[in-house]
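User: If only I could read backbone structure tokens as easily as an amino acid sequence. Underneath my words sits a plain record pairing an amino acid chain with its backbone structure tokens. This is the protein in question:
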Amino acid sequence: MDNQNLIYDDKMDGLRTFYNRIYALVGLGILTSAAVAFITIRFFLTNILALLSGGTMVIWLLMIGTIVLMFPMQAAASKNSPAAMPLFFVFSAVWGFMLSITLLAFTMTDITLAFGTASGMFFALSAYGRLTKRDLSGMRKALIAGLIGLLIAMVLNIFIGGTMVQLGISVIGVLLFSGFIAYDNNKIRQVYMAMNGQVQDGWAVSMALSLYLDFINLFMFLLQIFGGAGGSRK
């Protein structure tokens, strides 16, 4: 019995270390994005405004390019390639640039409130997903279905352009990515235990990417809510 307790304790210590490694990567990714966004707005504001003058097509191309960058990063992570971690930080830097464009439309008060709220929610939901005894894997299908529906609604709203519709989308986005944060934290525990602690560094990078995107999306939707669902900077 003592040996079994020692094995269990060692596994729990390993799991805590693994979580801490993932959280460290998420934190560094967010810090990278914040630094790039600050530098871009502080020193390259004229360039951003010139870029925006090219119309919405430019923004869509940048967004698509950012999403495409995810695929080589995920492929590198799945192969446990040393390139996975550098690609993660490149991805975070690119997202920082994209954030700089979005943040121009909001006040510092809106940004601070959204970031503080997102951080508090992230920590609380991460703790729940990590510590709950429930297996949250059953949430996956509902979350994926919700994400698809959210993306369709966001595309339709480009043509509708309603403030109340945007507010509704933002509220749904907050709820959806709150669920993803709890689910992804729970997934880390489930996979770690199923693999008896034999997890590779690539898995840590992959899960860090998931949690990073969960946080960024939660922050962005909260920003829409605090900013009046798309209120512009005066």
About this structure: The radius of gyration is 19 Å.
